[in-house]
Fold Large ribosomal subunit protein bL28.
Amino acid sequence: MLVMTTYCQVTGARPVFGRSVSHSHRRTPRRWDPNLQRKRYWVPSLGRTVRLTVSAKGIRTIDKLGIDVVVARMLARGEKLS
């Protein structure tokens, strides 16, 4: 069974925790999740497709730098590819 990660594999964006403050100033815990998407990319250097969990900013990073550069950086820091 695959469990979706709660962080962006490209940018490393993770959920941020804080508190909601009501009009009466009562504070309740909440969290802000990054906008994560499951995307498949064809990586010519590997000769196969990879499935990544990326945020919207991560998708823009891949569009700007190219998938080969991003995958090389991910492999250099030890990130797993599926």
